[in-house]
Automatic annotation (TrEMBL):
The lineage of its organism: Bacteria, Pseudomonadati, Pseudomonadota, Gammaproteobacteria, Oceanospirillales. Keywords: Membrane, Transmembrane, Transmembrane helix. This is PP0621 family protein. It comes from Halomonas salifodinae. The keyword Membrane applies. The chain crosses the membrane at residues 6-22. InterPro entries: PP0621-like. It comes from the Bacteria.
Length: 87
């Protein structure tokens, strides 16, 4: 009878230890996945640049580059270049 009780206690301890380890593993895995997702998002957004004409910020991938300056669209690029010419 005593032996059965000891076995039961050991079994319960092992069960809770396993549960705790499993929860720790799951949290660790979630943290890792969040970290990886964050990196992917930052890489997708890329470097931010500013339109020389209207000062709006936009990703480098969507911006137009002309003579070392960045522009949000071809209309602003043309307007800026026209203003530069007239000065
Ligand atoms: Zn612009």
């Amino acid at each position: 009878m005593n032996l059965l009780l000891i076995r039961l206690i050991i079994f319960a301890l092992l069960f809770f230890a396993g549960l705790k380890l499993y929860r720790m593993y799951r949290e660790w895995k979630l943290d890792r996945e969040e970290l990886l997702e964050g990196d992917d998002q930052a890489a997708a957004e890329g470097h931010m640049v500013r339109c020389r004409y209207c000062q709006v910020h936009l990703p480098e991938a969507d911006a137009l580059r002309e003579r070392g300056d960045w522009f949000c669209c071809s209309a602003h690029r043309d307007k800026y270049l026209e203003e530069q010419k007239s000065e």
